[in-house]
Write a structure and sequence with these properties.
heterodimer; A: alpha/beta; 6-stranded mixed beta sheet; 8 helices; 9 strands; B: about 75% helix; globular; disordered N terminus; disordered C terminus
Chain lengths: ~260, ~300
């Protein structure tokens, strides 16, 4: 199986003291008996943006919850490198009673950092995502795209070594989505974090990632591991080129097979 | 999202936000012509006062007019005659004090109980039924008991207000504390925050809209509690309820109606006051504050 081969190849990476995450034979069974994940093994390292695609309910999000420690595996091991984990949820999960600045400050504040540190971290992150000038706005006054930017900025304040994205742009319109894809790519090239990016969109997965993991329906297994060796930076027009289409076709075929 | 809520400014030096979202032309507020806003309520009030006159002068024979004296007579006797007004205002002060104090105590107890119940399912399962019992026991049956047990004094009046105002505060606060979205809980869990930090920085602010809904109901109930309680607390300085009772016994219907009007004004004032505080606290960020808020 493709997944196993890749796992062998990357095992030696696991010994390195880097950030990122290594899943080894991880299974997850919920209390009600549902098996969310059959043994899954893969790894993601700094400089890798691994996209995870699969049908609804295949355990994609469970992978992220496991990697972040929000839930524990039923068996197998998960090694996550030192450094912070950034989690960008499907909803922006902004706190409506805090304005943009105070929302972005939240994580540092919860970590008990002092006010000036929180402020500085927030200002830098707000500038990075292009929300300067909107610091005083409450979430209800923001568009969906801007909410996601604020959510991204919030995660950035912790300078995460491992970034987990749970369909962050799933609810956005196509144009906004492509724009944010573009900006996320820049951010990735700049910071070189390790990232797991869960998405429903094959195009988004291929455009952003260094590798696409294709999962089967429940219980989730990795049925294909498609490397995307298209060079960065990738321009938005790449989406309409044959090289892109062939990768997307490969991922799409694997999706249909595993369904 | 409403068009006016969209930010009107573009971030300095940054690419404009999503081309798909054209900034709408700046609409100044949503002010309607004054006549349209004020007209209908004024017209309805005029109709109601008209009906009042109609009943007083047309339906009721002069001998029975005391059942509903005409408005100007109520104003003349009840509000413009100093001795009557003085009695009513003195009672109003006492009733307001009992209702206000009862409301504050109910808030303290209600918050405490809701917070306790929000901490564990088994606590909720144990405590909640008693809150329901508290609500379902007829308050009129309880008031005399409170009087016998604690004396027919000011403290007992306050206690009646607390009893009657407590339930909506408990239920709405608890509902609010439990209404936090899973994603927001996850966000806090990932930071490893403790119970109190989560309560104070996440659950409590998230609960505020629900809390104010409860407070708005309870403020009115507390006033009702103070007036109903009065019917049983016949000693000492009279509250509005006692005064109403007294006027009824004396068939002084002008004063009676004046006292009833003042009672309901007190309830309205309590309602508006909570509405104003609510608007101030959650108005800037809560979406439906402007539609449900008493302005």
């Amino acid at each position: 199986m493709a997944a196993m081969a890749v796992d062998q190849k990357t095992r030696d990476w696991a010994d390195l003291e880097t950030s990122g995450a290594v899943f080894t034979d991880v299974t997850k069974r919920f209390a009600d008996g549902t098996v969310a994940l059959d043994p899954v093994s893969f790894s993601v390292h700094p400089g890798e943006l691994v996209a995870v695609v699969g049908p609804s309910g295949c355990g994609k999000s469970t992978l992220l919850r496991l990697a972040s420690g929000l839930c524990a595996p039923s068996s197998g091991t998960i090694n996550v490198g030192p450094g912070n984990v950034g989690y960008v949820f499907q909803d922006a999960t902004l706190l409506p009673w805090r304005n943009v600045r105070r929302n972005v400050e939240l994580l540092a504040e919860l970590q008990g950092m002092d006010k000036p540190t929180c402020r500085a971290a927030a200002s830098a992150a707000i500038e990075t995502v292009g929300l300067t000038g909107f610091e005083g706005k409450y979430p209800r006054a923001l568009s969906g795209g801007m909410k996601m930017r604020a959510s991204l900025a919030r995660a950035l304040t912790m300078s995460p070594g491992l970034f987990l994205f749970d369909e962050p742009f799933g609810a956005l319109d196509e144009i906004t989505r492509e724009r944010l894809n573009d900006e996320l790519q820049k951010l990735f090239l700049d910071r070189r974090f390790a990232a797991l990016f869960v998405t429903h969109s094959v195009a988004e997965a291929v455009f952003l990632s260094t590798r696409v993991l294709v999962m089967s329906g429940r219980p989730g297994r990795i049925v294909a591991d498609v490397p995307i060796e298209l060079p960065y930076p990738r321009s938005p027009s790449l989406r309409y080129e044959p090289a892109f289409a062939s990768r997307a076709g490969q991922v799409g075929a694997a999706l249909r097979e595993g369904h | 999202m409403s068009a006016t809520a969209v930010v009107e400014r573009e971030p300095g030096g940054h690419p404009p936000e999503e081309p798909g979202r054209r900034q709408p032309p700046k609409v100044k507020g949503r002010r309607k012509p004054t006549l349209k806003v004020v007209g209908p309520p004024v017209a309805l009030s005029a109709v109601i006062i008209g009906i009042w006159y109609f009943i007083s002068y047309v339906l009721l024979q002069p001998s029975r007019r005391f059942l509903l004296p005409p408005p100007q007579s109520v104003v003349q006797v009840g509000f413009l005659t100093w001795s009557n007004l003085h009695d009513i205002l003195t009672s109003l002060a006492l009733t307001s004090k009992a209702a206000g104090l009862g409301f504050v105590v109910a808030i303290a107890i209600g918050f405490a109980l809701a917070v306790i119940m929000s901490q564990a399912k088994w606590l909720e399962r144990s405590v909640y039924p008693w809150a329901v019992v508290l609500q379902t026991v007829p308050i009129l049956a309880i008031v005399p008991l409170i009087g016998f047990a604690f004396g027919f004094n000011f403290r007992s009046r306050v206690m009646v207000c607390v009893l009657i105002a407590l339930f909506p505060i408990i239920t709405n606060t608890l509902f609010g504390l439990q209404s936090v979205e899973d994603g927001q809980h996850d966000l806090f869990t990932l930071q490893g925050v403790g119970r109190w930090s989560r309560l104070w920085k996440l659950q409590f602010p998230a609960a505020l809209p629900a809390i104010f809904t409860g407070l708005r109901i309870s403020a009115g109930l507390s006033v009702i509690g103070a007036i109903v309680g009065d019917f049983f607390f016949m000693q000492g300085q009279p509250g509005l309820g006692q005064l109403i009772n007294l006027y009824r016994d004396r068939l002084e219907s002008d004063q009676l109606y004046a006292a009833v009007i003042v009672s309901s004004l007190l309830g309205i004032a309590a309602f508006l006051l909570v509405g104003a505080v609510s608007k101030r606290v959650i108005g800037p960020w809560y979406d439906s504050a402007r539609t449900t808020g008493a302005s």
